[in-house]
Specification:
Blueprint (H helix, E strand, L loop, with lengths): L11 H9 L4 E4 L5 H5 L8 E4 L6 H7 L3 E4 L6 H12 L4 E5 L8 H11 L6 E4 L2 H12 L13 E5 L5 H5 L4 E3 L14 H18 L3 H5 L2
Parallel strand pairs: 1-2, 2-3, 4-5, 4-6, 6-7
Helix pairs in contact: 5-8
């Protein structure tokens, strides 16, 4: 990885970096320098990180970035840069939440326990009520959540029993709360479901003591 700062695209070092790099991340406040736009071909296919309110359509058309991330608020820049670094390095952690009606409330307990254990999630996906839990998680998360179309390199799956076998093929960890005694429409069971989720997460982490070091690093 090479970190290059500077505004002279004609510089030989800049040209070498652009020519040899596997991935170019271009950082702009929204209005790139004219010199760089004149050499936009060298930046085509880059990842564009905009530290400002917006970027013009003309800039997007000329750079043709493969990914665009806009961070309008200065207070969010550090988190955005940390997330981008984790994703590029293949260290971003994702979580997938299954459905199950009221039983999916157990996801809240699982998430609480995993966060207390030090795991931070940059991506979230879900199905049925699990998607609502995931949306609540994303809305309240301090980290930026990139689009779900990106490949999730490492995933923790919170799942019901009937999908465990398939989930184990793709996940670092599968957590299965024991929700059999909670009805699908038992909406008053939230406190009990949350505790069931916390217990399942604790047991899964205790059974895989090396996991936190691998996923949380």
């Amino acid at each position: 990885m090479v970190l290059h700062g500077g505004n002279d695209p004609a510089n030989q070092w800049a040209e070498l970096c652009l020519r040899e790099a596997d991935l170019v991340v271009a950082v702009t406040t929204g209005v790139p320098d004219a010199e760089w736009l004149r050499r936009a071909t060298a930046l085509q296919g880059c990842e564009l990180l905009v530290l400002g309110p917006s970027v013009t359509g003309n800039t997007l058309g000329r750079l043709q970035p493969r990914e665009v991330q806009v961070v309008a608020q200065p207070s969010r820049r550090r988190k955005a840069l940390e997330l981008t670094a984790r994703r590029i390095a293949g260290r971003a952690l994702g979580i997938v939440l299954s459905g199950g009606g009221a039983r999916a409330f157990a996801h809240f307990g699982v998430l609480e326990e995993l966060r207390e254990a030090g795991l931070q999630f940059d991506r979230v996906a879900g199905v049925s009520l699990g998607s609502l839990v995931g949306a609540a998680m994303a809305a309240g998360s301090e980290a930026e959540i990139p689009r779900l179309g990106e490949t999730i390199l490492r995933t923790v799956t919170v799942s019901s029993i009937d999908t465990v076998a398939a989930a184990r093929l793709h996940s670092e960890l599968v957590i299965t709360p024991r929700v059999e005694r909670i009805g699908l429409m038992d909406w008053k069971a939230l406190p009990r479901a949350v505790e069931v989720g916390r217990q399942a997460a604790r047991e899964a982490l205790e059974a895989n003591p090396e996991l936190l070091g691998r996923l949380g690093s």
